[in-house]
Design brief:
globular; 371 residues; 15 strands; alpha/beta; three-stranded antiparallel beta sheet; binds pyridoxal-5'-phosphate
């Protein structure tokens, strides 16, 4: 039995008719840029996130970049984020000309550590950009409190957390703006690249819309030098279909994660990364720490059994060549660095099913018992 990290073909098989119909409608209408599909998706996605506005863009990276610009971030400003994220979080800050400031993460949740954040704030801090890593909400209340007292905005990188809850608030809805990716493998994935910025702030929404569409508010009225970073109508049509299923898919991921938690309980040396209390995670990834023996050995064993695994992420941002210029050194973020040498992501996706989860765990158990 081959077990991949995600199986997009298995998911397509469950929604083929709906998707094919929606996509062919766009072709029939031949309205490929903006228009009704994008607008309808934006309205439905905003409502689902519990905010007033959503603006579709062409990637999660664009969502982060344009949300930062819309919040007025630029050269001379400092933006604080974490070292254990996908590189796009930090690229987006770099595009604005602002300085990237990293803070270490909490050893339990691997999300932004509020105390360390408090110490990293300076007079130049203009934005704080936590990441809801693996679909686990960061400590929004703690971070908001620090942002408020620093006079900075909180923006959320919710690219892995569609539908996750902090109390009863959706990820992406608590900061000035929330940034989503619809990369195909994300919990809500398009059939190509896509992203969105969600916000309650009309000015932020208007600014993102303008920046993403050549700096214009209406035809031929170009107010600023913008970009071409619009959400594609075909992707919007696919996303509208998938939005009808996302709650069930997230619930299925949670069930499979609970099964992993239960089955792994007795496996000595395997410690799942824990979501914060009071949150409802959406398990974009199911990540464990390998506290005993060789992580590579475990991954080899899984590979030989046809079971995929991953490391998210093997190299912290400050150890990445592209961001060496930030001037950080090995040892600056001990929690993130230690995690990056121990974590393994096990396969999880809505269609994985109990049998495959059991097969993964029995391979993990067999390896851990053999060492
Ligand atoms: C996927 C991802 C992004 C970037 O999204 P793209 O759509 O690939 O540009 C940003 N941040 C995080 C945490 C992500 O997982």
């Amino acid at each position: 039995m081959k077990i991949p990290m995600v199986d997009l073909r298995a998911q397509y098989a469950t929604i083929r008719e709906e998707v094919d119909e929606a996509v062919s409608r766009v072709m029939e209408e031949s309205a490929f840029i903006l228009g009704a599909h994008v607008r309808d998706f934006e309205e439905e996605f905003a409502a689902w996130c519990g905010v007033r506005h959503a603006v579709g863009v062409n990637s999660g990276t664009a969502a982060l970049h344009l949300a930062l610009l819309a919040a007025g971030i630029g050269a001379g400003d400092e933006v604080i984020t974490v070292p254990n994220t996908f590189v796009a979080t930090v690229e987006a800050i770099a595009y604005t000309g602002a300085r990237v400031v990293l803070v270490d993460v909490d050893p339990e949740t691997l999300n932004m550590d509020v105390e360390r954040l408090r110490h990293a704030v300076t007079a130049k801090t203009r934005a704080i950009l936590p990441v809801h890593l693996y679909g686990n909400p960061a400590d929004m209340e703690g971070i908001l409190e620090v942002a408020r007292s620093a006079g900075a905005v909180m923006l959320e990188d919710a690219a892995q957390a569609h539908g996750a809850l902090h109390g009863d608030r959706r990820a992406g809805s608590m900061g000035r703006a929330g940034c989503f990716s619809f990369y195909p493998g994300k919990n809500l994935g398009a059939y190509g690249d896509g992203g969105a910025v969600v916000t309650d702030d009309r000015e932020i929404a208007d600014a993102v819309r303008m920046y993403a569409n050549h700096g214009r508010s209406e035809k031929h009225a170009h107010h600023v030098v913008g970009w071409n970073e619009r959400l594609d109508a075909i992707q919007a049509a696919v996303l509208r279909v998938k939005l009808r299923h996302i709650d069930a898919w997230n619930e299925s991921r949670r069930e499979m994660a609970r099964l992993y938690d239960t089955l792994l309980e007795g496996v000595h040396g395997i410690v799942p990364v824990a979501p914060m209390k009071g949150t409802t995670p959406v398990y974009h990834l199911y990540v464990v720490r390998v506290e005993r023996g060789s992580r590579d050995g475990l991954r080899r064993r899984l590979d030989e059994a046809g079971i995929a695994s991953g490391i998210h992420y093997p190299v912290a941002i400050h150890r990445t060549p592209a961001f060496e210029h930030l001037g950080y050194r090995e040892g600056d973020f001990p929690v993130a660095e230690s995690a990056s040498s121990k974590i393994v992501s096990l396969p999880i996706y809505p269609e994985i099913g109990e049998e495959r989860v059991r097969a993964v765990v029995s391979e993990v158990r067999a390896w851990m018992e053999s060492i």
